[in-house]
Amino acid sequence: MGLTQKLHILAFAAHPDDVELCAAGTLLKHVDMGYKVGLIDLTRGELGTRGNAELRLQEARASADLLGIEVRENLGMDDGFFVNDKEHRIAIARIVRKYRPDVVLANAVKDRHPDHGRAAQLVTEGCFVAGLIKVPTEMDGKPQERWRPRAIYHYIQDYKLQPDLCVDVTPYMQKRMDAIKCFKSQFYDPNSDDPDSPISGKDFMDLILAAARVYGRPIGAEFGEGFTVARPIGVEDLTRLL
Description:
The chain is α/β, with parallel strands linked by helices. The protein has helices at 18-32, 53-67, 86-99, 114-130, 173-181, 204-216, and strands at 9-13, 37-43, 71-77, 103-106, 138-139, 142-143, 151-155, 165-168, 224-228. It is built from 6 helices and 9 strands; from the N terminus they run E-H-E-H-E-H-E-H-E-E-E-E-H-H-E. The strands form 2 sheets. A 7-stranded mixed β-sheet has the order 3-2-1-4-7-9-8, with helices on both faces. The protein has a two-stranded antiparallel sheet with strand order 5-6. The longest helix has 17 residues, at 114-130.
């Protein structure tokens, strides 16, 4: 069997900073609880209005160190042009079989940026392919065993979709904001000559905090992160729900 590194949670992102902006608190919380967590960026974000591919890779490494995650990889897919085809689904399946996550986090199913919804579908279908015994893949020249995560949860991005579940991230909100700010090329900088973008405004960080308050309120928390699901969530103990 190809080399594997068992992770409990594996988060996928169309672009470096997608997870930080929407689900970093959830990752921090689960790392703190002792779970092994990894993050896979599909692209280098090379088409972003601000910064460049190499700078964003450096920022992603800095964020990974802050988050305390086990691994962070970049699949080098084409920003803006990756597609949901056999080749790309196999690439996702290979990563899923490598890390064998119980839970996968993926981009929003619908959003302002078309890469986000496309990545959501690609990851979902790639996870399904990873569980098919008749789809062979290799890692380091060795065959991989099939694996399918138990659940896929989609974090919510620019479009404020109705969440199916919310995670209390109140104790981790400051560190989440620090992780976001690792991608300083993307956000407000009065000394930057880069063009403005939808996330480079002076008030953008205030919007991040406001959204977290919105997702925290229904569960009685100061700050929360929201997720949607494609299938109902199984529950064993109703008394443990917030």
